[in-house]
Amino acid sequence: LALLLGLPLALPAEPPSCAPLVPVTFDNATIPGLLGQWIYIAGASRYPPHLEELKAVKHAAFSFSPGSHEDELNVTEIMRLNETCVVKNTSKILVFWHNSTLAHVDDQVASTAKLIQSDKDLLILKHLNTSFPTLSLSARMPNVSKELLEDFKAHLRCLGFTEEEIFFTS
Fold it and tell me: I need a surface site. Which of 43, 76, 95, 99 has the fewest CB within 10 A?
């Protein structure tokens, strides 16, 4: 009897049920919906350069404005990296309509990402580097509901991240 009572403890826990990250298929409303101010909330990455930046970012806000043509957005970023304030307005977002991908180009370095379906006031990006999963969360407001934050954390757990590997801004 004691053996049977202990059996449930010996069985492996069920892995979390993982809802797929569904990328947005761009349409005429997608890019206008991205324009304006965003506050960076959290992220996780296994790509060493991104990981170092995630550890250093204490606060970040950015905005997208129309670029010189429909396939381009201008980006203005204001970040506090540790104790240093950084303002950058030289980077661009290139929009690739054929595969619904965004590329952030900064000093000849490009980082590509898919926009993940979520609330209209959230910006979840899955960065496309198959060797190093990276997911980031930004929002229109500095505070995100506990429910939305838990959904984001669940996506990260499904990608194999632990709570310690998720970096939040302060």
Answer: 99
Mean pLDDT of 102-125: 90
Q: What average pLDDT does range 2-10 have in this prediction?
A: 43
- Whole-number Cα distances in Å, 16 to 157, 161, 164: 8, 12, 18
- Indicate the pTM of the whole model: 0.85
Q: Distance between CA 92 and CA 68 in Å, rounded?
A: 10
Q: Tokens in use for 104?
A: 């952030």
Q: Rg for the chain (alpha carbons), in Å?
A: 19
- Residue 135 near residue 114, CB atoms below 8 Å: no
Instruction: Count Cβ atoms within 10 A of the Cβ of residue 85 and give its class: 0-12 exposed, 13-18 middle, 19 or more buried.
Output: exposed
> Which residues are paired to 93 by β-bridges?
73, 104
* pLDDT tens column, 66-95: 999 989 999 999 999 999 999 999 899 999
- Write down the pLDDT at residue 130: 67
